[in-house]
Design goal:
The protein has 779 residues and is of the alpha+beta class. It is 16% helix and 35% strand.
Length: 779
Amino acid sequence: MFNQPDEAIRPPEVVRDRVAEDGNALVHSNDELASFERVLSWSHAIQNRRVAANWMRDGRFWFSEGAPPEAVLKIFDPKDGSVAGLIDMERARNSLQRLTGHAPSDHGLPFEAMRLSEDSSICFTYGGQGYELDLETYRITPVPSPNRTDSWLANLSQSPTAPGTFTRPNCFGNRWSAPEIKSSDGRWFLSLRDHNLCLRSADDGQIEIITRDGEEAHEWDVETPSSLLGGVVRDTASSWSPDSLRFFATKFDARATAPISRTHMLGYRDSVEWLRMARAGDSLPTYEPFVFDVLSRRPVRIDVEIADRFILFIGWHETGREVYFAQFSRDFRTGTLFGADPATGAVRSIISETAETFVRIQHDVICGRSGCTTLPNDLGFLWESERDGWKHLYHYALDGSLLNQVTSGDWPVCEVQGVDVEAGMVYFTAHHDQARPYDTHLCRVSLAGGQAERLTEGEGVHEIQLSPDFGCFITTVSRPDSGPQSSVCSNDGRNLHRFPGTDLTELKATGWAPPEQFCVKAADGETDLWGLLFKPRDFDPAKRYPVIEYIYGGPQTACVPHDFEIENRSMLTLKHALPQLGYVVVTLDARGTPERSKAFHDAVYRDWRRHVTADHAAALRNLATDRPWMDMDRVGIWGHSWGGYYTIASLLDEPDLYKAGVASAPGLDCYSVFLSEPYLGGVPGEETKLAYDDADVIGEASRLKGELMLAAGTNDVAMWHDAVKMSDALIKSGKQHEFVMLPEQYHAYGAVSKRYLVEKIVRFFAANLQASTSALPAS
């Protein structure tokens, strides 16, 4: 990645007192940079041992050990705890060789994708072609591709029975890719085309457009697994009614939302794209709910107010007699569960809750998480609430009457995993052990309430796969310092089988060392803050090392990983890689972030900035009191998105601590987008003016003392504009700074731009923190 001057070939110590010819970076040794590169792309050094279950009707599950082309398929039986081969590998490879004329490579199965059919066969793809393997005869037959004429008539690029993708509108002004929604009877796929609703036959692929009034900024939408930044966030309930005769849809209207520009400058002529994303206080897009009758193609409007509200589909009554959805007020102080008659559109309010601050995290709702679970057999709903100071589950009847509080205690629920109606048990994940408040465990409790039973053991984050019959579950536990370990347990927590764990030997050979989990006090001197500390390569406690903090700080997520980070995303793994260049790296979650108590989270309410910068600074200073090798005269900070905002806020609020910062894709102006409204008390106005003004960092540009590098993609609406505004304010104040423009990049950067920015970050901190170690002063 890095082009080094000749001095880089010297022995593997930092080349000191030498600035590269471009004048912007101290030079690291080749050995250090090689180790940095290896850790930055560390996923190749980890064999992920996470077991992904494919559950079968009889309670068993099959899974793949290894990845193509060395995948080995096995099957687990929870009745006796046995693991056996799913297929005869030699027979399968021989059949594939007879079919294709050449032997498969390596020693496993080279299937690119596969699924187990109910008729004892495996459907898989190999070389882009679909095949079916009969598990009795081991005969492999090709699965025919769509007929060319059918493909042309139906505009198909895949088999009619396979779900395709389409794009949905959203309140961010972009479009999200989403999968087609298959009807309950398997006959139809529901999606959008040219802003209108359409049905595609699963039999022959024929497409019917069923609405004609959709247009740009006033179009139809359907609920699907929500997709953000290209990844599926969570599964939501199907829009289809159980009998496949109706489906839920909304009319999305952004016409009253003021447009914001995105300029493309790399072509022969500039082009301007106009997106509709609301600024704070602007008109929000509206979502008008409908139920469509499939036979008559007739829409039935559901009669509710839609202005200044976010809507989220919840599901259908199991008989199809009622459809459920939730609405959240613009300030997120009120959330309401509605039920509607699909035949008439008549609506009733079932549950409504109002909080002094906010009842849900805004991003959760936008990305499809409602906090409401529908129960079968007319048992009603499970509703998440923080009314007693912690996020717990409350059982409501169909008529909206509160039956009981299901969970209780000084710990928060994370997710409902499933409800065993016959046994009357609710399975859920929770931060159940407040001695380690970010560890995640599987628990269960009676639907009638009572003492929750923790089913998982051991420190760390337990990722759960619950069997459909509730007979057993798979837990994959990991910590920042130990890789994933999967086990199968019975539904009462007894261990049935432990799979091989993740071997970190190759990763450690790259120079990576496991981080240290820590707990220190916040600025109030009372609240515990948790985080991670990464020590430098070849750590020597007799030396002093510069410190770099990675910050996020935003109220919709906790950024510190308390599990083992497998995913190779360089902007996240950078905190693992920078220690290879001689830094101590620290990351922590301050007050105002979720996953703790309601009071911990509410610290952000009408105080967007000060408690965050104070907590982070206090945590670093407290951390250094018994770690003299942390050089507190050489401290840097970097963050992305709201982490970019808090990077600049920290430079302004704590100039004696932070000497240099990198603000990537920074959301700097709380007026520039509606996302801050729930946490600042609502839309801009007389009551909220102090909160908005106190959050302003652009207006304080003249106070900047430390070194600053801004970075933003030109396609990142609002963030690009904010970065330009900040740069303009700095220029007018005579403040030198760097501005890295990433052409045609969005909020998440592409690989080439990301690598370029990583090198800029390394050079920036090397130049401004002098990334060489020094001996501790004599006592």
